[in-house]
Amino acid sequence: MTGTEGTVWTSPRDLAGFAWSPDDAYLALWDAGGTVRCLEAGTWREVLVIPGTPVGAAAWPTAEALWVVRHHPPHDARVIAHAVPDGGVVGVAPMPNAWVGRHAVTVGTGGTVLVAPPQWHLEDRARARVRPAYVLHGDAPVVVTRLDPDALGALPRLPMRRQVRAALSPDGATVALAYGGTMLAVGADAAGRTQGELVTLDWATGRAARVAPGGRLPVDEVLWAGASTVIVRGGSGGLPVDVSGVGEVLVLDTFTARARFDSGRDLEGTRMEGTGGGDGGVGSGAALDLHPDRTHLLVTGRATDPKGTPEVPRWLPALRVVDVGEGTATPLRRLAGKVVPGAGAVWLGEGDALAVLTCRTARAARVDRYASLTARPAGEGLAFTLEGTRPSDVRLVRSPAGRWLTARWQSTPARDAPCVRVAVLPVEALTGQ
User: Fold this and answer.
1) Which helix (H) or strand (E) holds 431?
2) Global pTM value
3) Which residues are CB-neighbours of 11 under 8 A, at least 6 positions away?
4) pLDDT by residue (tens digit) across 266-324?
5) Do the Cβ atoms of 320 and 280 come closer than 8 Å?
């Protein structure tokens, strides 16, 4: 399984997902058929091939153990832990009545892992049964708690359907449940629309606390930025929308129950959301990257192109940095590139340096190093080709140890199909320019 373009390695086939080991030594890839392949970073040699039933997700609690969430017919799932690179099965944890399909997996410290549906749809308890999430622990996975929203009376259920996304805190003790708002709800008038909220849940005791108001849009992403800081990104709730769709980013303080930063304060006054006077800045397809020191958030979104008009708006990729502690944001930095197929940016971990991905055509992508948000690109960058039928939804991801950059994109027009490609770039090739 090889494919190289200079110093860039690209996957030669469609995938359903990928996951890096914590030490960046291995890259796990899985396809829609259920085959998981572990590659040795740098050589891209297959060290382990694991066939099986369809995969919902995979994660690395440790550098030597790969946990694979698989569908277990007819209506269950299970976690299978494999030793890498020898491939031996360390343990199996059944998850009865779990979500069948893709899962959201969050790894905390000390080997605690949350396996949840990608999003819950919570509404009236009499009308909808919700599949549970599971908290697992140990070298060999053992279920320590089943989080069943139908049994937890402390979790609010609502007459109007809303998406809920979950994430495990860094210490592995608390689950953040981000309830989306209903501003985009079909058939709901302005008076009936509901703001979202953030609920934290102590999974060991089942106690929940409603700690902060949330956004006005369905939730697309939730992540922890510290012991009492949660970041929520709102947008389409997973529905396909055009690039001018609204979006929002909130930094919520669970201790003071306040929003330190809310990019969508002027959302109800204009369709083009942002803190810069309605000139854009987030959008429904925005991407987030938290600095390794957890103090600054890099937002890749979109902004209006000055060459456009109010009647026929045009869009450019744009960057903005949010100070997580202060709740302030920098002005937009517009990029030369196309909003479709996409753009991405991540911190390189060395001060303010960034890696920025842009697309000049529908298939030509490149990654450049910026010394800071306001600097010009340094060096010649790394170029590669976006393979697939119609590339879209391009993203850039930093590996856990910071040695590799992974560009991922949807390789087919069907956004709901798990068909993605990846290209892996060495960070040293950028920093050495």
Assistant:
1) helix 427-431
2) 0.90
3) 1, 3, 29, 421, 422, 423
4) 443 333 333 333 444 576 678 999 999 999 999 998 888 888 887 787 888 999 999 99
5) no
